[in-house]
Amino acid sequence: MLIGAEYFYQLLCIGQIKLKTGTTILQRTRFGWVVTRKIYSPSQKVNNLCHLSRSTLENAVQRFWETEELPTRKILSPEEEDCEKYYKQTLEKLSSGHYAVGLPFNTKKDELGESYKTALTRFQGLEKRLTTDAKLYEEYRSFLKEYENLGHMTRVEDTDKQNEYFLPHHAVVKNTSTTTRLRVVFDASAKTTSGVSLNDTLLTGPVVQQNLFSIVTRFRLHNIVFTADIKKMFRQVFIRKDDRQYQKILWRNNPEEVIQIYKLNAVTYGMSSSPYLATRTVQQVAADERQTFPEATDIITKDMYVDDLLTGAETVKRTQTLKTQISGILSRGGFNLRKWASNHPQLNERSEQTTEEPICFDFSDVHKTLGIL
């Protein structure tokens, strides 16, 4: 008969006799008297274990951390691998020092429909809004005028409206900006007649920069710190000529003029692949210069979040050296740093090169970087 262990104490009754043998006990239960005693095994086995290791404690600890550590190389999805492969295939260094890349299309490229009519309707609506705000209209004109003067967009005479993509555009205003209050953003998510947008046909690519938590944590460990950002980072990366037909816009300076067609020559705000193409090219600049300045290029690789640089060193002299090296490396790829700021007054000295951008090397007042105090 098997009885559950939870009933053991319910079966015991008052009455217990210990025999002279010492280990034998008579216990009264609801079923009568029971006999209990320790059972001795006629033979006891003794097991001797011996462990021999030729490795040192340091090697054992190292193997432990190698086993527990996360892989340093990010594992890419098939789509991310295709995007990275296509980037390397189309990457080109221009005579100006800038880089040109191709738009990373996926398999839906041939599904794009006609987009001109939608872009025209959106532009006419935009123009009506701009005519009611003279200040906004003038800022919009100035932005696109600069766009054209810098070679980031070019007017097109002959065009095939059926086999190209026209980007609607609109203004984004940031009153707190110290450099550009208004920015024109292009809508690559606008659907064509087939229901497919340009963003639907593009690979977004992997994240190539480190996460924000790691960057900010390292930034707080430095004795001397400095910050900066890349001027017009997206637009310093050009799109190869064969792909510029998918970056066309409609524009005119006033309603009395004829609507003109322009093509955008550089990486464009509002396209799903743009963050990857821009940040990947910054990483490429660092990779190309790694043999010359290994520490500075390592900082570019690890301490940049999109277009913001947050880094530092232990001494003022070392910080000044890194600042010079990082600026030189990025400028060779067409990326210019601006809006410098530091927590040390000695870094308030301007370089011999003049700049139109405001420079601040004072953290005595509130200074924001990445939108964080």
UniProtKB/TrEMBL annotation:
Residue runs in coiled coils: none
Reverse transcriptase domain segment(s): 215-337
Name of one Pfam family that matches: RVT_1
InterPro entries: DNA/RNA_pol_sf, Rev_trsase/Diguanyl_cyclase, RT_dom
GO annotation terms (biological process): DNA biosynthetic process
SUPFAM superfamilies from the UniProt entry: DNA/RNA polymerases
Protein name in UniProt: Reverse transcriptase domain-containing protein
